[in-house]
Amino acid sequence: MSTVTNGDKSIFDRRESQVRSYCRSFDTVFTKGQNATLTDVEGREYTDFLAGCSSLNYGHNDPDMKAALIEHITGDGIAHGLDMYTDTKARFLETFEKTILEPRGMDHKVMMVGPTGTNAVEASLKLARKITGRKNVIAFTNGFHGMTLGSLALTGNSGKRNGGGGVSLGDVTHLPYDGSMGDVDTLEVARTLLNNSSSGVDKPAAFIVEPVQGEGGLNAASKEWMQGIAALAKEHGALLIVDDIQSGVGRTGTFFAFEPFGIEPDMVPMAKSFSGMGLPFAALLVKPELDVWKPAEHNGTFRGNTHAFVTARVALEKFWTDDTFAKEVTEKGEVLHQRLSEMAQKIDGARLKGRGMMRGVDVGSGDLAEAICAEAFKNGLIIETSGAGDEVVKVLAPLTIPMEQFKAGLDTLAAAVDTCVQNKIAAE
Amino acid sequence: MSTVTNGDKSIFDRRESQVRSYCRSFDTVFTKGQNATLTDVEGREYTDFLAGCSSLNYGHNDPDMKAALIEHITGDGIAHGLDMYTDTKARFLETFEKTILEPRGMDHKVMMVGPTGTNAVEASLKLARKITGRKNVIAFTNGFHGMTLGSLALTGNSGKRNGGGGVSLGDVTHLPYDGSMGDVDTLEVARTLLNNSSSGVDKPAAFIVEPVQGEGGLNAASKEWMQGIAALAKEHGALLIVDDIQSGVGRTGTFFAFEPFGIEPDMVPMAKSFSGMGLPFAALLVKPELDVWKPAEHNGTFRGNTHAFVTARVALEKFWTDDTFAKEVTEKGEVLHQRLSEMAQKIDGARLKGRGMMRGVDVGSGDLAEAICAEAFKNGLIIETSGAGDEVVKVLAPLTIPMEQFKAGLDTLAAAVDTCVQNKIAAE
Amino acid sequence: MSTVTNGDKSIFDRRESQVRSYCRSFDTVFTKGQNATLTDVEGREYTDFLAGCSSLNYGHNDPDMKAALIEHITGDGIAHGLDMYTDTKARFLETFEKTILEPRGMDHKVMMVGPTGTNAVEASLKLARKITGRKNVIAFTNGFHGMTLGSLALTGNSGKRNGGGGVSLGDVTHLPYDGSMGDVDTLEVARTLLNNSSSGVDKPAAFIVEPVQGEGGLNAASKEWMQGIAALAKEHGALLIVDDIQSGVGRTGTFFAFEPFGIEPDMVPMAKSFSGMGLPFAALLVKPELDVWKPAEHNGTFRGNTHAFVTARVALEKFWTDDTFAKEVTEKGEVLHQRLSEMAQKIDGARLKGRGMMRGVDVGSGDLAEAICAEAFKNGLIIETSGAGDEVVKVLAPLTIPMEQFKAGLDTLAAAVDTCVQNKIAAE
Amino acid sequence: MSTVTNGDKSIFDRRESQVRSYCRSFDTVFTKGQNATLTDVEGREYTDFLAGCSSLNYGHNDPDMKAALIEHITGDGIAHGLDMYTDTKARFLETFEKTILEPRGMDHKVMMVGPTGTNAVEASLKLARKITGRKNVIAFTNGFHGMTLGSLALTGNSGKRNGGGGVSLGDVTHLPYDGSMGDVDTLEVARTLLNNSSSGVDKPAAFIVEPVQGEGGLNAASKEWMQGIAALAKEHGALLIVDDIQSGVGRTGTFFAFEPFGIEPDMVPMAKSFSGMGLPFAALLVKPELDVWKPAEHNGTFRGNTHAFVTARVALEKFWTDDTFAKEVTEKGEVLHQRLSEMAQKIDGARLKGRGMMRGVDVGSGDLAEAICAEAFKNGLIIETSGAGDEVVKVLAPLTIPMEQFKAGLDTLAAAVDTCVQNKIAAE
Fold first, then answer.
1. pLDDT tens digits, one per residue of D215-271
2. Are C20 and C12 in contact (CB under 8 A)?
3. Cβ distance A55 to A117 under 8 Å?
4. Burial letters A96-135, b for 16+ CB under 10 A, else e
5. How far apart are CA C38 and CA C55, in angstroms?
6. Same fold, C10-62+323-427 and C78-319
7. Is the pLDDT of residue A1 over 70?
8. Where do the coiled-coil regions begin and end (chains A, B, C, D) (predicted)?
9. Do residues D364 and D391 lie in contact, with contact meaning Cβ atoms separated by under 8 Å?
């Protein structure tokens, strides 16, 4: 057995890169996960309000996914099959077609890409540029789309951008996201720049936008704004890429976060919770008329994680064949909204952020947000911040969390808010 | 069950992107894998000489890895833990340290990156540029390092490069790989360009090189050349990145393909067979003094696939605690060399390529190579081509393939060569 | 003598590139220029309201400049001296120091650059990036800064941008110029994007801005806006480059167009009328603490046109030793404003543009503006359009034009407006 | 009068940028130039072996050019005419057609560009990329093509490249120039890289090459090599741009330096001596089928310096209507070769460089070369170094220099060589 079972974590310092991050907020060694509960090496239990940054929307180790995966492995089902045909992939695609695409009138094709969100985003960029013959891509302030070079150019965060040592992050124009400029109508800003042939903003290959910005601070775009962006893209012959990696798979109450907006994205990068069980898996949904790459024009070794096909299929069968699950999520989202509103009232200048089960409170400073999360962790709650200055306390609980545990977790959070607000007042 | 069990593959045409590729050479639906044998939906068995492009060096579904993984899942072990501490990660790191790093005198740290080779390569580029304050990276002709924007700039293949629609693939200088210019001393070419302050080749942040070029046509660099490149990098203050993604994990007979060269790479991107069982997993090995990123300066959701930690650890324990396995691989590599030599003698102008269990024959034309692979597939052998013009018939059998099955597979290949050579002669 | 004296212009079609442009609006062969009057090969006289796009602010062939230049040539004064010391350069520098820099409290140094505006702009970009270690430069919509690769990236016009065949025009962020977004406060847009560390707009090396945008449609920035931009640059550690190439040398009534704004640019690219007589000449004014390049770190063959030193010095001595000339320009600018206002009233939706002797009328459509200019040319007036859609009739008369000739030219223009407006009404 | 006439040079320190360079080698103030003789403010005469870096191939102030220019100015001929038609331009074009183009069977069109070499080069790059739809341009080691961003990317010198503060100089591949790699066949290097579709060297829009590299160290390409490059360009659908800016206008004995090679460049950037008298002037010669830009798609204020049209025409009429001048240049080139050979024999390891009247000696070190030039200057000879390490003593005398003065200058140079070699020996 590992030495960590004796409380010795030196192996991480000795052999894991310093770039590791989440372990610094949650400084213990985890051993087990069951739905919304994590257990550490000392047997202590935690409620998980981070959910793998929305990669575990169905919680840890769903029993049905587990069972199907164990059965697959036991029977020597393919573990790695490059992009060859497998029965497992066929069953996943058939279920995705029937459960998700057809009911929503979507004719998209599924492009298997390397199993990370940034791979899906990179594929979308390359394809959009190839199709349109244009290079510029419109991204939005506070957007996050990944850390490989193409995606990093789309990403707003200066700390992330500077990690690459100053290589130019080109062929991208960053425009203000909905609500990011106070009273200024950001749609009008975009419109004016694009309609002016001397603006210096080159005709874009695509717009890429998150319906709710996860890393950027739980900024939720309005229906009007998203429709305006979709119309603007169309008007200028640009493709609309809706990055639903963090906001998708039920997080906001519908399978795709863009569903309530009545827009038709040309491409949809998916990842995070798409595998159902937190296994690495990503795909790019592409309108069939845009599916123009020749075989292998874009490729990669791990496209189509076969184990993930198994669990992703089970997730779709279990949660998306009727609207029971969606209704539950919506209901939990309302509870979340209510409780966060109460907390926000206790913090001067606090603002509610987000949508559905992807909500948080902008508490005005990164220091306060961090203090609240640290206090909550002391009391068994795993929760993180987001936003440009880490100023948003972000709740990303599993959508499957039992209501009682959810409320208890929110009680823990509320107590942490109280403690930190009092500490802050005392310090002033 | 899926319709494909009834022989209906229409779901793939209907819903999977046209960019899929390997399925086109091997047009059947696979259901099971055991060591070097794949089984399709009709119960037909195939010998796998492709091994997930060297992602399945230990074959399909190794029983010990299976058992450990099933135990992990059954016990609700963490499936997805972001980059938090887990007992599973600790055990993997401890085993990797003891089994691989310490015996080789390597003090590298392990950076968990997104679970694809290109993520590891992108991380190495960003880090090298940040550390040196330089932008240019030296890559080599026929190199392949991935398909995301940063890695694609390093990749030689024009078809892949053009997939992105013409975005500039900058900040890279492509120099000739060992042996790629006939009699010209390619090391001298590199040296002259770098030593001339007016060459226009900017001082590099790094050299990135594969010990054996897998996609590029199984080109194997000599010891002298690799040492020369390592010395040149050092002389010019550049870091040496050895991309051992395809050639590593025992493929050439040692754990790392660069071991026989007596060089000390600054960074080593690992992926493909690193997880042992074909699960998506990648890491960047980094010398400790280069481990300078702040927490989260580079990040990603799926860094550190916990299931892969389990299987990777078992693989290290099972195959790398003594030299039994390495000797077997070397022995099989000699058999392979012998049999390919015999085949090459039957083809005008054919050349042997590669090293260890990563060998092939350049048959002079892509058409002939493709015909041979297609003929072999008819007879139950899964085998692919590589090289700029797909002119190399490439053998990447699992290293664990039983000798008898290996020889039978080579018989099948030899027969395919005979048939195709005769067909070609007949057609002329 | 040339065949053109016989009306044969075929040599131009035969041997001059089709990219030539102004000759297409003014399809005759010119032979002589005297102040505001041009004479063509048939002896016809034209009033020049274009003035070499503001390169002839002192008119054609000023007699004092002519005399000095002829004396210089006659005496075998240096015609080309690279950047060696000459008495001619010394006299120019001494005069520029005494006449322009000292009275304005400017301690700038004069960097001789290649004799075109774009050379001065390219030098400013390179220097700003070197000094700050940053790459991004903020430019503004409808800006024009030149056609070489670095300057083209700053330029807004899409037709110009596309001339380069799609090479990336990177490391520039284009923000909205004053007044370019209707009611939207464009300074606030700039401020919000720069103050948000996750906006994706990288910290800039410099802001580059024209006080009045010549090619962009005679957009004149307000004092408040220019001061706001200057403050924003300072706040973010960016240099302020004020491109006074077209708007400088008295065009708006002061030597530099930025004088009324009370700002202190770090660098000022100068060209066009800087030589006084229309000879190719450009320079970059640089604050002494920014004059950090080593000898020859930026160079060029024609830096410091010696003939231009002669004429530029005479221009400074003649026009800028007291405020007589500046007052005349201001007065003429008021006449121009008055007359253009009258014309604008006759055109539905017309808007007055510009400042000083750099004014025009946005007539709402490129077709109408072109028709007006063509009609004016028929009646002996040389005048051009500007703006993204060529929708602005632009008056750039020599500042030295006799008042009577100026008013007669404005009469011609007013008549052309009347004619074209009536034609337009008739056509509707 | 200027204070410099009293020996006070403080104005330069006070007001001219430190980036100035030639004045540092020749630290006196020049006042007059006549053919190959410069006179300084103290009346001292110098023989000019620098000739404005080959911008004064016909010497200073040729009396016929002077006379024509004075006549033009006196008669109020156009000084600045944008790109409008003038009689002066017509006469120049007619003379260039008759004297240069037609006798050489060239059907090129003349594109007037901004009056510096780098403007012509930038225009050629933009046009080549637009025509081919490709971005990559092949340039050669030790090449120099200018300092604006597009041209700088082509330039080899690292000092120049670094002047821009690290902006990426992309879309260019630098290949080894003829003779730059000892025994390695550099044409074979180019061929192998371009013929390998996986080399990572993207299909080029153009090759740009100097027949003799002036700044790069007077490297003269062989006929075979230039023909090989021309053939390679053609084979790969790339345009051939021959940069004859420094080597053209008779410098090597023919009007164009590429004439002896029997190649047909697609584009030829011209500048430096093209105006005849050292006035700023540049043009791009373009094959008619490549003259595809729309009017103003590339533009600039000072395209077509009218004063230069006058002097350039006189130069063509005076020197190129028969072969007298060319023969004289060839003869002088042989004298030069003979004398430099004698000098080279006195220096260990010295190598002769160049061709025609563009020759020098690589003396093995920049220090020695600089010492020789400084010693020569003490004795009234203006001469400079070139090469990556400034190791080449470079003779660029006016082609019109009287033979006696030429030989006397060479005597001065030979004496400087003797002195410096003896000093060096003494110091060792």
1. 999 999 999 999 999 999 999 999 999 999 999 999 999 999 999 999 999 999 999
2. yes
3. no
4. bbebbbeeeeeebbbbbbbbbbbbbbbbbbbbbbbbbebb
5. 15
6. no
7. no
8. none
9. yes
Residues sharing a CB contact under 8 Å with residue C241, sequence separation 6 or more, in sequence order: C121, C124, C128, C206, C207, C208, C209, C265, C266, C267, C268, C269
The conformation of residue A351, written as its DSSP 8-state character, comes to E
Q: Do the Cβ atoms of D174 and B173 come within 8 Å?
A: yes
Residue type, C25: S
Cβ atoms of B179 and D196 closer than 8 Å: no
Say how far apart CA C314 and CA C311 lie, in whole Å. 5
Separation CA A103–CA A100 (nearest Å): 6
Query: Residue A233 has which token pair?
Result: 């893209």
Beta strands in D108-242 (DSSP E): 109-112, 137-140, 172-175, 206-209, 212-213, 219-220, 239-242
Q: Which of B134, B135, B162, B168 to mutate to probe the C interface, most C CBs <10 Å? A: B168
Residues of chain D in contact with residue C61, where contact means CB-CB under 8 angstroms, are 73, 76, 79
pTM (two decimals): 0.97
Q: What is the mean pLDDT of residues B2-13?
A: 87
Query: How far B149 CA sits from the closest chain A CA (Å)?
Result: 5
Interface contact flag, B76 A112, Cβ < 8 Å: no
Rg (C-alpha) for chain B, rounded Å, is 22
Cβ-based neighbours of B174, under 8 Å, separated by 6 or more: B139, B140, B141, B143, B156, D173, D193, D199, D200, D201
Contact B184 D182 (CB under 8 A): no
In this structure, how many other beta carbons lie within 10 angstroms of the beta carbon of residue D338?
Answer: 10
Helix (H, G, I), strand (E, B) or coil at D426: helix
> Using 50, 70 and 90 to split pLDDT, how confident is the model at C2?
confident
- CA nearest B143: which of B112, B123, B168, B118? B118
Residues D281-306 have pLDDT tens digits of: 999 999 999 999 999 999 999 999 99
Domain boundaries, chain D: 10-62+323-427, 78-319
Q: Provide the pLDDT for residue A278.
A: 98
D2 pLDDT above the threshold of 80: no
C217 dihedral zone (left: phi>0; alpha: psi -120 to 50; beta): left
Q: Give residue D137's pLDDT band: very low, low, confident or very high (50, 70, 90).
A: very high
> Given its phi and psi angles, is residue B182 left (phi above 0), alpha (psi -120 to 50 degrees) or beta?
left
Position D1 scores a pLDDT of 62
Least-confidence region, from A44-48, D108-112, D179-183: D179-183
Residues 6+ apart with CB under 8 A from A427: none
**CATH T-level fold of D10-62+323-427:** Aspartate Aminotransferase, domain 1 (3.90.1150)
Greatest CA separation found in chain C?
A: 66
Q: What would the pLDDT profile of B209-239 be if each residue is shown by its tens digit?
A: 999 999 999 999 999 999 999 999 999 999 9
Beta-carbon separation of D189 and B184 below 8 A: yes
Bridge-based pairing state of the strands D358-362 and D351-355: antiparallel
| Residue B243 pLDDT exceeds 70 | yes
Q: Which CATH class is domain C78-319?
A: alpha beta
Taking the C-alpha atoms of A236, A242, A243 and A248 in order, what is their torsion angle to the nearest 10 degrees? Answer: 170
Mean pLDDT across B308-312: 98
Asked whether the beta carbons of residue A189 and residue C171 sit closer than 8 angstroms, the reply is no
- Order of strands, sheet of B392-395, starting from the edge strand that comes earlier in the sequence: B351-355, B358-362, B392-395, B384-386
First to last CA, chain C: 49
Chain D residue closest in CA terms to A133: D133
Give B69-116 pLDDT, tens digit per residue. Answer: 999 999 999 999 999 999 999 999 999 999 999 999 999 999 999 999
What DSSP string runs through D262-306? T---SEEEE-GGGGSSS----EEEE-GGG--PPTTSS--TTSS-H
Give the number of C-alpha atoms closer than 13 A to the C-alpha of residue B41, restricted to the C-beta side.
20
